[in-house]
Amino acid sequence: MQVKYDIIYNEYSFSHFELCRRIAADWSIIMKKQSRSEAREAVFTQVFQFATQRDNMEEAREILLEEIPECEQNLGYITEVTEGILEHESEIIDDISRHLKSGWTFKRLSKATRTILKIAIYEMKYCDDVPPKAAINEAVELAKKYCDENEPRFINGILGSIMREL
Predict the structure, then answer these.
(1) Which residues does 54 contact at the CB level (< 8 Å), separation at least 6?
(2) Alpha-carbon span 124 to 91, nearest angstrom
(3) How far is CA 94 from the centre of its chain?
(4) Which letter does DSSP use for residue 15 in this model?
(5) Greatest Cα-to-Cα distance within the chain, rounded to the nearest angstrom
(6) What element of type H or E holds 96?
(7) Which is more confident, 124 or 41?
């Protein structure tokens, strides 16, 4: 014999099955699926922040998860890329510097441009699941959002020349 019971949820009475369905619906609204592009943007914020404050990586990651809970879904990717960039930073900076015009230095680039280039180069060289052209496209999209109007073309040019060397 099946026992039927009602449960109070948000001041309404529901059967157990109906309650589970409603909670799942509420949860799906709260925890929307995060795209890789959104995760890459989270990486951008982390690497951008680490450019000045490297000693608080864990704290910065906790703040990120508090502010954008759906980052939990891509935390492995976010962690891998941010830590990988920090591990290979000097090599990545050398790659960028070799492709700058004469008279330009890495430090002359804006902080946002440097960060976007680091992410894309790391993905192109070390992330097997990210095709280089996709990394370039995503970098250009980030530049359109966070840089001035000339930076997307500049970033595309630098990354295109690096991709040809891979």
Answers:
(1) 86
(2) 13
(3) 23
(4) E
(5) 83
(6) helix 89-98
(7) 124
Residue 18 tokens, joined: 């109906």
DSSP class of residue 10? T
- Cα–Cα distance for residue pair 25/5, rounded to 1 Å: 21
Q: Express each pLDDT in 16-36 by its tens digit.
A: 445 444 444 444 444 456 676
163 contacts 120 by C-beta, under 8 angstroms = no
In this structure, which amino acid lies at residue 11?
E
Residue type, 35: S
Rounded Cα gap, residues 147 and 29, in angstroms: 31
pTM: 0.72
Tokens 């699941």 — which residue?
129
Q: Which amino acid is at 100?
A: L
- Beta-carbon count within 10 A of 114 CB: 19
